[in-house]
Amino acid sequence: MMFGGLPHGADEDTPVFVISVAAQLSGMHAQTLRSYDRQGLVSPGRTSGGGRRYSMRDIALLREVQRLSQEDGVNLAGIKRIIELENQVDALRSRIAELTEELTAAYVAAEQTAAAVHASYRKDLVPMRQQTALVIWKPKKRI
């Protein structure tokens, strides 16, 4: 059963489209898709027999490659670099999210530990202010 153009249980990363369908969906020739695969611009999944299978994310990337090339005039080497940098930015964003979660958990743990320490204070002790004084002794001279 298809839902939103994808088989049941598939998501945007599931490689489901054969090259002819991917070419049609992206508005490109199948040979162009093969060329982009060889150049490392878009790397589809593979079947056990070696056939290419494209995901919806691959189709979106193919469309973006076409847009950058045709509308913005970026050459394929530039497009490859843009894709690499976007992937790097995505990876860094994921890492920031992970570190933010870890930091939040550490703050919560520290607050819980501090609360436990404060709760363990004896209630029958009353803190007193300590004072210190400096006394200078000057003995009187004997005559």
UniProtKB/TrEMBL annotation:
Keywords in alphabetical order: Coiled coil, DNA-binding
DNA-binding in keyword set: yes
Single GO molecular function: DNA binding
Residues of the HTH merR-type domain: 16-85
Coiled coil: 82-109
Record's protein name: Heat-shock protein HspR
Gene3D superfamilies hit by this protein: 1.10.1660.10
Pfam family, any one: MerR_1
